Amino acid sequence: MTSFNPWQDLLLLQTREKLEKQHLEDTVRTEQQDHLLRKAREEASTSATRHQEELDKLYTKLNTLQNEQPSLGDDHIVETMRSLSQNLDSWVKANFKDATKLQSWHGSDGNRFPHSSSQRRAYIQSFICCMIHTWIFSPYQFGICDDPYGHFLCQLEVCVGRHCSETVLNTWKTATSMAIEGDSKDNDEGIFTDIIKAVEDRFGTFGSTSDESRKRQLGKLLRKCADFKIALSRQKQAFLFFRSPVGAEFSPQFMTFGGGDGQPAGKVRWSLWPAITRCHDDTGREVLEAELVWTME
User: Fold this and answer.
1) Which residues constitute the domain of residue 85?
2) Of 74, 163, 192, 293, whose CB neighbour count within 10 A is largest?
């Protein structure tokens, strides 16, 4: 006959309760871990989905923007170049039409050169042309310096073109141009301000209009030049601008006579507006619009 031991039964009961409690706690902990794991997976999946959606939106936007990039035909490029050149010519003539003020010009060589009012207007135009070419047209991308950034991007474009398809290259050019344009707005305005200040400091005394009016008009012209340069940088083909140094031989094939001290067959005194050329890998450069020059004997 088994003897009854209340202490042993109590111990067994306590042990069973302890085990049940431990089991319950383990079950709850496991469920919590499973819940956290499911939640983490769901959040990761949601995050990945959201990230992919954002990427899809960006790719769609980029493709849309690329498709929306107008393909500039030769006629449009030539028309724009002539329009910008005429705008600069008109700006100079409208803001420096007072011959009396222009006669107060003192040349650096002591002989009051340029002599005539037309020469002095041409000199002002050539000075602004040089600034536009140097700071807007000439750099690889408007808004950044060629040394070192423009040179690096130019080499990178060559590498992309060598190893990737034409579609990828065009997408890269568009995306790079868009990124630079979006991130260099303050620098762009600084370039415009510096050009306008340089022009005013040197020629403002001879102006026949208010300085605010001149600055505003010139700022609009500079913005048009920059927009044109940006549009060209997103084209499939590459375009380069060129202006001749003083003393270069006049070339009817590459230059247009815009006035001068002598016959068109002489030498270049000033470049009044640069030429634009299209680059070809096999044949070199093709002149789309000739340079406008002021000649001398």
Assistant:
1) 74-236
2) 293
61: burial class by Cβ within 10 Å (0-12, 13-18, 19+)?
Answer: exposed
The Cα–Cα gap between 82 and 244 comes to: 18
- CA–CA dist 293, 46 (Å, integer): 63
Would you say residue 98 lies in a domain? yes
Tokens of 260: 């001068």
Q: Which residues contact 107 (CB under 8 A, 6 or more apart)?
A: 113, 114
Assigned domain for 277 exists = no
pLDDT tens digits, one per residue of 184-231:
777 889 999 999 999 999 999 999 999 999 999 999 999 999 999 999
Chain-centroid distance, C-alpha 92: 27
Q: Are 278 and 252 in contact (CB under 8 A)?
A: no
Query: How far apart (Å, rounded) are the C-alpha atoms in residues 159 and 179?
Result: 19
In a domain, 261, yes or no: no
Quick one: CA dihedral 276, 280, 285, 286, positive or negative?
negative
Enter the tokens of residue 159. Answer: 């590498």
pLDDT by residue (tens digit) across 256-271? 999 888 666 689 999 9
In a domain, 84, yes or no: yes
**Stated pTM of the model:** 0.74
Question: Helical H runs in the chain?
Answer: 6-68, 74-95, 99-103, 117-132, 151-163, 166-183, 185-203, 211-233
How many structural domains comprise the chain? 1
